[in-house]
Amino acid sequence: MTRFALLICLVFLSKIASAQSIEELEKQLSQASTAKEKMTLNYQLGTEWLKKDAKKSIEYAKAAHQKALELKNSGMSAEASYLVARAYARTRDDRNQDIWLGTATKFAMDANDANLIIQTVDERSRLASKNHDERKALKVVQEAFDYFSKKGGKSISEMQAQYDVQRTMLEREKNQLEREKTQLEQDMNQLQMEKKRLEGEIGVVIKEREHISTERDVLKEDKTLLTERQRELESEKQMVEEEISKKEEKIKAVSTERAKALYLAEVSRRLVDSLETRQKLDSLNLMQTNLALENAELAQSRGKYLIYLLAAAALFTILLSIAFYLRYLNKKKSSNLLSKQNKVIEEERQRSDELLYNIMPVEVAKELKEKGSATAQQFPEATVLFTDFKNFTQIAESLTPAALVNELNECFRAFDHIISQHPEIEKIKTIGDAYLCASGLVNHKTIPTGIVQAALEMQEFLDDHKADKMRKGLPYFEARIGLHTGPVVAGVVGFKKFAYDIWGDTVNIAARMEQQCEPGRVNISETTYGLVKYQFNCQSRGKVPVKNKGEMEMYYVLGKQ
């Protein structure tokens, strides 16, 4: 029983240590200062997370792989790539698992890690067989066989035998661990039962303590109620005493008032006797006074009527002025609102025009706005430029959809910026990974120096882009660019999603120039060469066979003279 308890403690300690290990490793990673430390810590974190979260394991393993590339550490690049493949296997992502297994095989060959080569080749061949791609499985094994044949190391059979021995030992260790795991699970179940029993006893004790605490709270509550009742009685007693005191004061006040009233009654009686004699004399004076008051009231009423009339006229004038002022304010407000709306409409119209001018030439856009359609035009001497990326499909398979779109967007935005520096060039469209633009879409002859210079600038951008991607160990695009000069027809097609496009044999020949070009170079036809040979240094390629065109003279543009 002691042995079982010890094993259970070890299991708990290992789980706690694992959690602490991840936290400590992440803390160390945030404090790491050298690339080597970051590489090692990222790999360790990727290994730890593989047991819990495959996505986090992929993130850390890729970071370790990137640091290993920067340090040119092929061994760690191989191990990190293999860790990424194992994490993708957990997510059942066969495509990315195969890609990263191939990467691990490549770096393992660079590091001469025979064991890792055998593991990755075995897993890739099993993955190909699972997908019923026996040809790929054979190819993977053949590449490993060629590598070991050149290195002169152990034979494949010897390595396979060694691998089988190691695999058998691992299987034995796995079975032993499974047995120990089963025993530990049984011990864990016993501990869980013991834990439930103890929890039950603890629950009973807690309930008893809660009951005692409840009774104590009831007693406290009763004491509080008694205290409050005592305070209320004291307050009522004080109120009664105050009421009695007020009534006594009222009785005293009534006695005083009664004495005063008796005194005033005696004085009034005496005054009445004296007033009766004076009343007859005052009656005559009163009649005269009433007559004067009636005359004054008559004059006062006439003045009031005049004042009322003037006030009504003034009020009418004020109301009329207020009405005119409110009308003026409403008119001014409506005028301002209309002015703002007209300004917004004008801004939207300008924005719409700018968008239309970005889609097609200005003259064509104006005609489309005025008439609702644009007349197709023929241009006798237009120069068409075609670009296309080498091995685009293979590179696309190694990138995520978001990364692929970002990469294309970065290149095409650079191309847009380059041709914007040459006003005579019009962008026509992009077709997948191909980019099409043209110059000379005017009714007079032009020399295509601008579009040839733009092609050279596009290759310069791609050279810089390639160098940056190589430093980071990432895939990169290389483009072929072809140009041809000749007649084209241009116009607008479509109704809802209309598009400006060009047609003609010139477009087809420009595409053939691109197809016959080497990556990283600019290939032009004999016609275009005749127009720019005095502005650019060109290298003759002689006659080159062209599909459906026979042989055509071609030239590589080396740079400006």
CATH fold group of the largest domain: Alpha-Beta Plaits
Structure classification: alpha+beta
Report how far the terminal alpha carbons are from each other: 92 Å
Report the mean per-residue pLDDT as an integer.
80
How many distinct domains? 3
Q: Residue ranges: pLDDT <50 for 5 or more in a row?
A: 1-20
The main pleated sheet reads as: 8 strands, mixed
CATH hierarchy, class of the largest domain: Alpha Beta
Proper CATH architecture of the largest domain: 2-Layer Sandwich
CATH superfamily of the largest domain: Nucleotide cyclase, GGDEF domain
Q: Give the total of beta strands.
A: 8
Please characterize this protein's 3D structure.
- The protein is α+β, with helices and mostly antiparallel strands and 561 residues long.
- The protein has three domains: 2-153, Alpha Horseshoe (Serine Threonine Protein Phosphatase 5, Tetratricopeptide repeat), CATH 1.25.40.10; 304-359; 376-560, 2-Layer Sandwich (Alpha-Beta Plaits).
- It has helices at residues 2-31, 35-49, 54-71, 74-90, 94-110, 114-130, 134-151, 156-359, 362-371, 392-397, 401-420, 449-472, 505-515, 526-532, and strands spanning 377-389, 425-431, 434-439, 479-493, 499-503, 522-525, 536-546, 550-560.
- Strands 1, 2, 3, 4, 5, 6, 7 and 8 form an eight-stranded mixed beta sheet that branches.
- Helix 5 (94-110) packs antiparallel against helix 6.
